[in-house]
Amino acid sequence: MTLLPYAHALAARQDLPIPAWLFAWGASIVLIVSFFALSASWRKPRFEEEHWRPLGAGLSRALLGPSAQVVCGAVGVFLLGVAVYAGLRGTEAPDRNFALTFVFVTAWLGFPLLSVAFGNVFKPFNPWRAIGRAVGGGFTAFAGQRPAHLAYPEALGRWPAAVGLLAFVWLEVVYGSGGGVAVGLSPHVTGVAALCYSGYTLAMMALFGVEKWCERGEIFAVYFGMFSRLGSFGAREGRLGARRPLAAASTWATVPGSAAVVIASIATTSFDGAQEGAFQGAMASTFSWLVDGGVGLTAALRLTGTVFMLLCFVGVGLVYLIGVRGMATVGGAPPIRKLRSGFAHTLIPIAFAYLAAHYFSLFVFQEQAQFTYLLSDPLGTATTDLFGTASGGIDFRIFSANAIWYVQVGALVVGHVVALTLAHDRATAYWGDYRQAARSQYWMLAVMVAFTCFGLYLLSVANS
User: Fold this and answer.
1) Phi and psi (nearest 5°) for 235?
2) Among the listed ranges 225-229, 376-380, 397-401, which one has the minimum average pLDDT value?
3) Does residue 192 belong to any structural domain of this protein?
4) Which is nearest to 182 in space by CA: 307, 100, 93?
5) Is-contact 43 434, C-beta < 8 A?
6) Pick from 61, 153, 330, 404: CA 20 to 30 A from residue 94's CA?
């Protein structure tokens, strides 16, 4: 993300001891070896059942009870309010305003990590859910009955969340690129956008119900909830429990539009990593062509970014659909529609790997700012020091450039191996015969290798 003036400087790499292309070859070999190991030893599905077991009742009451829900919801609403207020009333310097770092780094990048580790932790802190539940409870107490809601169109599924995900990233990396500030999105625009999204979300909750909209249409609830399916912890009927890691992902994509959500996640991260690297030349040519055609500079810049972001979305979707189409040619394959939705969850580890690889350094460094000077001086006016940390700074020596590169490569490789494992497991459930299942996965192996090489290419070009 082009959030901070030094964001891309952090990505500048020293000369790597091993060429990037060699990493790509090595990663491909790891995937191929993993594929044949799975084919030989993994003959029955292991992730079709979660094997969920409840944890202690006292722990569930403490973390999921009404008091905890109220406290967590209040914290979420308070932080949203601080972000909006900082955006509207604070400095327009993007690196000194609490709003941008909190929204686009702490929350956007932090919750996926927390979700994988601890489960769907965003749900109790979701400020819009907290407001919607409070309003609904007040209506019930006043009217003596629950508010009536429209039936949510099942065919619509999670498509609102997929479109919203594209729009959210577009706001920062495309609209922000022509927003008039030095680098990134204006804090004021961030505050206004948060207010507009709040109004939209609360209106949808009023129409379709709080929980239904959180499950299907609320961008952040759907997005963070998707990543939580990779972890070992979850909740059922108000009870915390542990489950087999990755197993919950197998049922995530049963709702229409789920594949579009995970594809949008991969595509937006890819675009953000490629716009000043692999796509730079093509985007510059497109921009010049639009300007020569009479389009204004800002409009041309934003239109160029929009076109290439959509091309990324289409490209990632086509790669996945090619894999699905290939699997359909293997004897005993279920219908393409079932394959298309049945394997969508296998892309979740890739989405997480892309997120970790592309934003690892930004998250590590910028969180130091979040919990020092941004926390003490959220408006960036240099007039407050709430916690005595306003003079704090960022230590860029925590990780060397090469260490960051190795973390990025490791994240991509591990993510794709996990994705390949999920795909093979689903294939054994669909085909029954493990030999046919293995044959079907030649296509998904090609998809995984393509995504791995593409991700490493984006990193190597951006860091060259």
Assistant:
1) -130, 140
2) 397-401
3) yes
4) 93
5) yes
6) 404
Can you tell me whether residue 240 is helix, strand or coil?
strand
E strand or H helix at 227, and its extent?
helix 219-228
- C-alpha to C-alpha distance for 295 and 286, rounded to whole angstroms: 11
- Joined tokens for residue 273: 């990593």
Q: Give residue 6's pLDDT.
A: 39
Of 462 and 253, more confident: 253
CB count, 10 Å around CB of 334? 12
What pLDDT is recorded for position 455? 79
**Which of 38-42, 103-107, 167-171, 194-198 has the least mean pLDDT?**
38-42
Residue 2 lies in a domain: no
What is the length of the chain?
464
Q: CA distances (Å), 408 to each of 1, 313, 358, 414, 415, in order?
A: 16, 22, 7, 10, 11
Of 26, 38, 9, nearest to 418 by C-alpha is 38
pLDDT at 452: 80
CB count in 10 Å sphere of residue 297: 11
> What's residue 10's pLDDT?
42
Buried b (16+ CB within 10 A) or exposed e, 402-420: eebbebbbebbbebbbbbb
Using pLDDT thresholds of 50, 70 and 90, give the confidence band for residue 16.
low
Q: Is residue 410 part of a domain?
A: yes
C-alpha to C-alpha distance for 172 and 184, rounded to whole angstroms: 7
Cα separation, 212 vs 66, whole angstroms? 20
User: What is the mean pLDDT of the segment spanning 12-26?
Assistant: 57
Residue type, 21: W
HSE-CB for 262 with a 13 A CA cutoff: 27
Q: In what order do the strands lie in the sheet with 239-242?
A: 53-54, 239-242, 233-236
317, two tokens: 């979707």
pLDDT band for position 161 (cuts 50, 70, 90): very high
Domain annotation covers residue 1: no
Q: For residues 238 and 227, which has the higher predicted lDDT (pLDDT)? A: 227
Please, what is the end-to-end C-alpha distance for the chain in angstroms? 17
Range of the structural domain that residue 193 is part of:
7-462
Is the distance from CB of 426 to CB of 41 less than 8 angstroms? no
Q: How many domains does one find in the chain? A: 1
Mean pLDDT of 176-193: 72
pLDDT at 3: 47
